[in-house]
Specification:
about 180 residues, alpha+beta, four-stranded mixed sheet, four-stranded antiparallel sheet, 3 helices, globular
């Protein structure tokens, strides 16, 4: 938010990208500030964390605990729960979960598995379950990025480039700046 005045705002919820810790701590001194998390496949908001203006957030602001009627766990590539502090994939379950991808049964089967009698969504996001019960977002396990709020699969961009006449190889990377 780059120090923009927020006028009469009393509650601020950010989601979609990890927020700047310093900005959020500053804002949390004068309003209720939350960092929310959740992909579209889980009705957008699956968890949230209330920002503490005095916390250090050395490893980023947590994405928090799941909201009502939602479950969140950190699992390995075989779907087994990871221990506290271990890096794994964020899996979501609950009432807000999508039914899958229209017309894409293979992708639906891959991304929406059942484990322990419950249906989950494998987010592709890396996370760590902290000992206080909150989850810390730790990036992606694949080549997916967000660009101006849109999901972009770098492998798909590379494939489209290789399909062009005269292109034998292609590599795509995101330049910060």
């Amino acid at each position: 938010l780059d120090g923009a005045p927020l006028g009469p705002v009393r509650v601020l919820i950010t989601a979609g990208e990890p927020p700047d810790s310093a900005d959020m701590r500053r804002l949390a001194r004068t309003l209720a500030a939350f960092n929310a998390y959740g992909p579209t496949e889980a009705s957008v908001c699956a968890s949230w964390h209330r920002i503490d203006p005095h916390a250090g957030y050395d490893h980023g602001i947590p994405i928090g605990r799941p909201i009502a009627n939602t479950a969140m766990s950190i699992r390995d590539r075989h779907g087994r729960r990871m221990p506290l502090g271990a890096l794994g994939e964020i899996w979501l379950a609950g009432a807000g979960l999508a039914h899958g991808y229209a017309g894409r049964p293979e992708l639906t089967a891959e991304r929406f598995p059942e484990a322990g009698g419950e249906r989950f969504y494998r987010t592709g996001d890396a996370g760590v379950l902290r000992d206080d019960g909150e989850v810390l977002y730790a990036g992606r396990f694949d080549g997916q990025i967000k660009l101006n709020g849109h999901r972009v699969e770098l492998e798909e961009v590379e494939a489209a480039l290789r399909a062009l006449p005269g292109v034998a190889q292609a590599a795509v990377a995101v330049a910060q700046g």
